[in-house]
Write a structure and sequence with these properties.
The protein has about 400 residues and is an alpha/beta fold. It contains 14 helices and twelve strands. α8 (about 200-210) links the parallel β5 and β6. α5 crosses α10 (about 280-295), α7 packs parallel to α8 and α12 (about 315-345) runs parallel beside α14. Pyridoxal-5'-phosphate binds near residues 109, 190, 225 and 257.
Length: about 400
């Protein structure tokens, strides 16, 4: 019997409740009953300060206050306002100047960029490739369009990026399908916090180049949602030139998000930026992605597009925003280091971590362990292969407490 009354299932498995919001609601309920001091809610995917308040860059908030009504009330063109399209390339690339043809199309957050890339560079029934540890909504986005997610093992036995497993899957899927969309979320991957090293990148690009000899097309979608919270902005953009050394039928696309970088999560702003070898491929990218936008969300909201344009039009403001973010980034990095230190002390194995909003712990009984921890007031997210802890949403002191609690629960 179908679970649905009037709605069509269309091959999707739709839970009755979003898992993360469900856990978060239970955490809020416990806070109401027992007080905030008794609860650690490490489920939230936004950056919170040590008191649990959402971090909003004051420099960005000031810029919002100075907007004119037309800056947010009016429609933006389908692909974004011209100033935004230029500004977002600077935001994504930093000082790197691509030699390829770049086009930026505005999207509602990084999510929209992922959606449009899958819609336009794969076909219904195709498999989209990403790592076994991945952001769960990739499945939802692909599934909504009749695609599925296939995975490779992200880490080898030594805890290094598993270039061999990646190469094997790229070869297999591109041969079977003729074309392939690959999603790589780096740096500061969600949910592990891993950042591909330059050596990892060499391996990735070699595999793609080799598969491209026979393939019709390979799209490498680099989801950089956390790039500006990983560490030094320039250092973490050093992989970008590697994206250029590919043949014409390989199209790198950057999925850029303003959600974390500018603390503008709710304004739903992002962009997809192509790095095409020919002008014709870049023009096609713009044409097909704008068409998809029209048929899904139409235009993206204008407000954050104007904000980013203002930030990049005013060097002083840009400096202010970057400095303010750097302070919060430091806070986040300290939390990560504290977590790593305590995990080591508690002899708790964690998935290779570099930086970012999340740390993951391999675990064979994730649902059972997280339930047990909930009873003790610690709320984390059970995943298929382990437990995800949001260090972005808890204090450094909590980061020092969590590893011991998890270890104890796992030993029971
Ligand atoms: N990619 C990853 C891995 C994420 O974790 C997120 C947000 O949580 C996004 C992309 C996109 O976020 P948004 O659509 O808010 O820009």
């Amino acid at each position: 019997m179908s679970d649905y009354i009037l709605a069509k299932q269309n091959g999707r498995k739709i839970p009755l409740e979003d898992k993360i919001f469900g856990i978060s609601n239970r955490a809020k309920k416990m806070i109401a009953e027992k007080g905030a001091g008794q609860v650690i809610n490490a489920t939230i995917g936004s950056l919170l300060d040590d008191d649990g308040n959402l971090v909003v860059l004051s420099s960005v908030a000031e810029a919002v206050k100075e907007l004119e009504p037309v800056d947010f009330a009016d429609y933006a063109p389908i692909g974004g306002i011209p100033q935004f399209r230029e500004a977002v390339k600077k935001a994504a690339f930093g000082s790197f100047q691509p030699k390829r043809f770049t086009e930026a199309v505005s999207t509602p957050g990084g999510t929209g960029a992922i959606r449009n890339a899958i819609a336009n560079y794969s076909e219904p029934g195709d498999k989209i490739l990403t790592s076994d540890w991945h952001w769960a909504p990739y499945n939802t986005i692909a599934g909504e369009m009749g695609r599925t997610i296939d995975t490779y093992r992200m880490f080898d036995e030594q805890g290094r990026f598993n270039g061999a497993a990646f190469a094997e899957k790229v070869e297999e899927l591109s041969e079977a399908q003729g074309s392939l969309v690959i999603i790589l979320n780096t740096p500061a991957h969600n949910p592990t916090g891993y950042s591909l090293t330059l050596e990892d990148w060499d391996r990735v690009m070699d595999s793609i180049k080799s598969a491209a000899v026979k393939a019709e097309s390979i799209v490498l979608l680099v989801d950089v949602a956390y790039i500006d919270f990983a560490g030094d902005e320039e250092e973490y953009r050093r992989f970008l030139p590697r994206l250029e050394a590919v043949p014409e039928n390989v199209l790198p696309i950057i999925a850029y998000s303003l959600s974390k970088t500018y603390t503008l999560y709710g304004t739903r702003c992002g962009a997809m930026i192509c790095m095409a070898q020919t002008e014709a491929i870049a023009a096609e990218f713009k044409r097909v992605c704008e068409f998809s936008s029209r048929g899904s969300w139409s235009n993206s909201a204008k407000l954050a597009q104007v904000i980013l344009s203002k930030i990049y039009g005013d060097p002083e403001l840009l400096k202010k925003v970057d400095q303010e973010r750097a302070g919060y980034r430091e806070m986040l990095i300290k939390r990560g280091r504290a977590f790593e230190e305590e995990a080591k002390k508690a002899d708790l194995e964690i998935v290779p971590f570099d930086a970012g909003f999340f740390v993951s712990i391999p675990c064979e009984r994730p649902d059972e362990i997280s339930k047990q921890l909930e009873n003790q007031g610690l709320f984390i997210v059970p995943l298929a292969k382990g437990l995800r802890v949001s260090i972005a949403s808890v204090s450094e002191a909590a980061c020092r407490k969590i590893p011991g609690m998890v270890k104890a629960a796992m030993e029971k």
